[in-house]
Design brief:
60s Ribosomal Protein L30, Chain: A, single chain, about 140 residues, about 65% strand, 9-stranded mixed β-sheet, about 10% helix
């Protein structure tokens, strides 16, 4: 993955370009930690050769894994980065397009890029904080 700062104003914008074979979530998580990101929004397009999505099962309070083992287009990738404790946590949802035009989507748990992923990250000057939600068992953003 390569990165370039596009704007260093009050909201810093960074382009991240992933190459074939790069793993998306772990790489972005490391980048967020290295850059000490505390409140960012993410959008991207590109393609994956494989991915693991998650669908949150409310009864089990855990993600059902959806394995995608085929070339897919990243039609929409949206997410955020917020503090979970004192560390940044990446949270991404994705819609993937299959060869036949059908789509699959969910929480992005991991993905291998092929041939590229073009991601824009906008860092806000403030911070967002996640706190454990007893009802869901998830770390959810709390404002206020």
């Amino acid at each position: 993955m390569r990165s370039k700062v596009l704007n260093a104003g009050s909201e810093r914008t960074i382009a991240l370009v992933y190459d074939a074979g790069d793993e998306v979530v772990a790489t972005l998580q490391r980048f967020a930690a290295d850059q000490s990101l505390t409140a960012s929004r993410i959008s991207a397009i590109g393609a994956f050769e494989r991915a693991t999505l998650g669908y949150f099962d409310w009864q089990r309070k855990d993600y059902e894994r959806i394995e995608i083992d085929e070339q897919v287009e990243v039609l929409s990738l949206l997410g955020d980065i917020a503090l979970d404790g004192d560390k940044p946590k990446v949270h991404i949802h994705v819609v993937l397009g299959r060869r036949d035009g059908s789509c699959v989507g969910g929480h992005l748990l991991q993905a291998q890029v092929r041939p590229t992923l073009e991601l824009l990250l906008v860092e806000s000057p403030g911070y967002l904080k996640r706190e454990h939600d007893a009802a869901s068992g998830l770390p959810l953003i709390r404002i206020g």
